[in-house]
Amino acid sequence: MIANQPKRYRATYPSNVRYRDQVPRDVKGSATVAVLSYHKIGDPPEDGWESWYYVPTVVFRKQLQVLVEDGWHPIDHGSFVAALDDPAGLPDRSVLVTFDDGYQSLVAEAAPILEELVIPSVVFVPTAYIGGRNDFDAGDEPAETICGWDDLAWLAAHGMATQSHGVHHHAMSELDPAARRHEVEESQRVLTEGLGAPVRCFAFPYGDEGDDPPMMAAALRAAGYRAAFLYGGGATDLSRADRYRLPRIAMGPDTDLRALLG
Q1: CB 145 within 8 A of CB 125
Q2: Which helix (H) or strand (E) holds 179?
Q3: Smallest Cα–Cα separation from 78: which of 103, 65, 96?
């Protein structure tokens, strides 16, 4: 478990064209990539409470500015997927910014800062909750609204691609093989039909890939996914990484990116 990583995470393992054109082509290198994972940006609702998953807007901005100041190069979802087959095509010290669950604060709080700093991103959404609330967190986190289809389309137009977080936000270790395949395949179908864009990446809810990683990877591959994300670890060499068990850095208000990334 990485520093500052809450117990909720169970893992034990470590396109937008106008953004892509701004990746500097004179700094290609060894394909070191850091993937950040946020949940909620801004303050809790009035009837809610603080938790580690809320990153205040001012802190979010500072964390992103650290990346820019320290020479990290933000990339979009399409560039990341392409680099799975051609890692040398990325600049060294690339960073992919991701969000889990699709909370509506992405529209009001995150997107304006990302657009101002010219940083593309990805949101992983559980399809059963699109336009609803985070019932999968009931009792553990404040009730929050999840983005609806119009929100996701707006985010896509502003540099945030939508990818899969399963259907019901289930931990894979709690499901049988058939149910795991359903989470993988049905979420992809719904998102593809709903947004008219390819769904090639999967983020495991809770960072839980189940008890049979090779079988899980085979199911993802068969469905056409190109990559899947866990939690834990830091920056990784994409040319050596297991594309179906990619690490992400869980981001909270106290996360020290300079200490984690060097």
Answers
A1: no
A2: helix 177-195
A3: 96
**Amino acid identity for residue 122 in this structure:** V
Closest CA to 168 of 182, 189, 151: 182
Half-sphere exposure of 93 (CA within 13 A, CB side): 14
The pTM assigned to this predicted structure is 0.89
Q: What is the pLDDT of residues 80-139, one digit of tens each?
A: 999 999 998 898 899 999 999 999 999 999 999 999 999 999 999 999 999 999 999 998
Task: Tell me the C-alpha distance between 41 and 58, whole Å.
Answer: 9
CA atoms within 13 A on the CB side of 96: 29
Cα 116 to Cα 237: distance, rounded to the nearest angstrom = 28
For the chain, domains (ranges, CATH) are: 20-256 (3.20.20.370)
The CA distance from 144 to 138, in Å, is 10
